[in-house]
Amino acid sequence: MGMPGYSYTLADELREVKEEKEMMEDVYIALAIGDGLKRKTDLGEEVVDDPIRSPLVRETMRIHAEARRKMFIVIDPKFPSAPNTLNDMRKYERLGIAIVKEQSQVGTGGAQREAICHPFREYDAKVVVHQEPEKVDVARRWIPYLVEPILKEGYQSVVPNRTESSWATYYEFQRRTESRANDIIARIRAETIQPYLDEMVGPTSFSREAESSVWEYRGTKWDAHMAPHDTIVAKGGKVTHILFDYQHPKSQVDAEAEDPSFLKKRVDQMVYCVNAILQHHFSLHPSLYDKRPDELKIFEDLAAQFPIYEDWNEFNSALLGK
Fold first, then answer.
1. What is the fold, at CATH topology level, of the domain defined by 10-320?
2. Full DSSP string of 224-253
3. What pTM was estimated for this model as a whole?
4. Predicted confidence (pLDDT) per residue in 104-155, tens digit
């Protein structure tokens, strides 16, 4: 299968379409969607489309539907989907392309876990690809490359590692926090998981054999699809990565780059995910805890202080060693 960016003949394209259709027969796309904005009106509160996220979410679903990929969609009634997004979901549901269920577990992590695990438990999936619904380019170009190593090489999970050109499509603050988090996670796993994993990227694929590792880990936030890699490897499974020349949506970058709430979110994600993986990893490998490098001890001290930092910039400067 050729990597995105190459020129193909019509025959090549038709062959790849046929190959993908056969490969995707028992594959589900896991989507946790809550893109609506709540707005107060004279009559109370209404949910409207998010001008940035909702068009991206609908485009992702449209691409999957056009490719006849099966979608398993989890929606949170507390954070409802935008009206137009919900209409599209129901349309794809009627066409037999999507399964839509309300979230029953807690938090972002609960939604991700249900979206990943229920296709294995209820629909006998062989592979599930988790992706954030705003990442349109994942749907457009990358699904087969996240599936192939599982079906053809026996891996239990595949993480896409962003290339330099992919990182360049993100705003600087997000690049710095996510790459720093990845580096610390790699240090945590130095003796157990050798491939460097771009855990903060988001999209990840899992095999049927990995389902119990995802289900048993009860993370409530973004760690729900990251920390299970430690469990998979501890059980003797294999995790790998692919090169990922993904292009992040410019509309999302422009909206977030100067927004203090999103900059704070980046720090929150970095601290929460790294700390969650650190704790889970050493719960599986307690004998390695006393041997952990000084860098991780410093991080633990800073993470413990995180709630008392009123100025998150101060915390971020300390964590990044500025």
1. Spore Coat Polysaccharide Biosynthesis Protein SpsA; Chain A (3.90.550)
2. GGTTHHHHHHHTT--EEEEEE-----HHHH
3. 0.88
4. 998 899 999 999 999 999 999 999 999 999 999 999 999 999 999 999 999 9
